[in-house]
Amino acid sequence: xxxxxxxxxxxxxxxxxxxxxxxxxxxxxxxxxxxxxxxxxxxxxxxxxxxxxxxxxxxxxxxxxxxxxxxxxxxxxxxxxxxxxxxxxxxxxxxxxxxxxxxxxxxxxxxxxxxxxxxxxxxxxxxxxxxxxxxxxxxxxxxxxxxxxxxxxxxxxxxxxxxxxxxxxxxxxxxxxxxxxxxxxxxxxxxxxxxxxxxxxxxxxxxxxxxxxxxxxxxxxxxxxxxxxxxxxxxxxxxxxxxxxxxxxxxxxxxxxxxxxxxxxxxxxxxxxxxxxxxxxxxxxxxxxxxxxxxxxxxxxxxxxxxxxxxxxxxxxxxxxxxxxxxxxxxxxxxxxxxxxxxxxxxxxxxxxxxxxxxxxxxxxxxxxxxxxxxxxxxxxxxxxxxxxxxxxxxxxxxxxxxxxxxxxxxxxxxxxxxxxxxxxxxxxxxxxxxxxxxxxxxxxxxxxxxxxxxxxxxxxxxxxxxxxxxxxxxxxxxxxxxxxxxxxxxxxxxxxxxxxxxxxxxxxxxxxxxxxxxxxxxxxxxxxxxxxxxxxxxxxxxx
Length: 544
Prior knowledge:
Layout: H1 13-36, H2 43-48, H3 55-66, H4 69-82, H5 89-111, H6 118-123, H7 126-159, H8 163-212, H9 215-224, H10 243-259, H11 262-268, H12 274-306, H13 323-331, H14 338-370, H15 379-404, H16 410-434, H17 440-463, E1 474-476, E2 489-491, H18 519-538
Antiparallel strand pairs: 1-2
Helix pairs in contact: 1-8, 1-14, 3-8, 3-11, 3-12, 3-14, 4-12, 4-14, 5-10, 5-12, 7-8, 7-14, 7-15, 7-16, 8-12, 8-14, 8-15, 9-12, 10-16, 10-18, 14-15, 16-17, 16-18, 17-18
């Protein structure tokens, strides 16, 4: 019986057919774009879609780029374990969209750049551009490894899909359509994958509503279980999710992700007009709201079904990230092909993020490292180089999946990576854009200090995870038929892939317990303040 624990079904033949069909569909779009545009082989066509894209497909691609397999699997688990506080990110998305559309997009669009980091050389110096690009490459490789590994691990343990077989297949498909089709292939494939992702959530919610007797029952169960308490106004910066950490810290983090991240900037500047670029961001905001809401309601559906028998506490699964795959195989296995659709949704998220990362990594490598040194390369040589780099970065991202196995909770780990590296970079851009007195020395020193601080707190929080202020809500195993021990009600342990050291240093429960959402704010403020102080000491700079 559903919701009472024990082993669940594994993949059927039809599930494999649906899953494989999705992957082949993604490859097909890439091949179609490659064949359709085979005569247009310029670097601008490959990296920017010829700067002729329109708002809606770019918006869906923007959403799909960071609504990854981690979102599909991690966000519902967040709602199940911690409640709907994460829903407040809807406000952060609105703030981020307005700031990015009205401040950053006009700047990048009018400069006509391919790499977001070209601005750093225009405003500061060549070394700062190189450092900024290098930071982006490290951040993106780490994040992409996590995006590939985390869903593969969770799905492997629930559905029986071979872990490394799927990892390599994911990378190979992305390499194929990135190499052949360029940015156009990535954007149009993202559109398909966005639709599949949302369909996966809808399937879970619809079946859950049937099992539980309606959406009202799910909402009622969530309220009784304390899952609907979203507004916590405690100003304590050590609490993981409060109103302030999400609205202030979360907004700065998402601004750093959307405003200066090459994967996103590349999409804005591929639009045919500035109006299309801005509109893409606002349509993307609606897409983010829809994805967030469906993911959160999937988590509440999961709680309604497992309120009396928590699979994690009952020993049916080993990590929170397996909760949604377990639910899917529990309630949808009777419908051949539907579990395959869900796995396709998780992998669509993965494919969209990985392909965006590969394309962006190629762009910054060519524009920031190769072309400034080799200015006499022909268009054909650059095109072949783009393709070769796509293969190389695809292989690198698969390799980085191994590093990702050492990270903790996937949703938090993914956002922590952005906070640690994007925060100081955002500070550098704001320093250049808002303060005419800032110079390259100030920018460099400020960014280094900001990066050292965020890496210190970020790595410390991974080594010594916060124990007391995670806001884990109660779960029960009283309704389990197949439990390993006596029935009890408990707060499920925070299961991470990070070993818990025996001795905790003094900073573990203060500095290292800072909410991960403040990492980006810390890096941004430190970079701006230190950059201004050093600029005042070293003197004014001139810039064009």
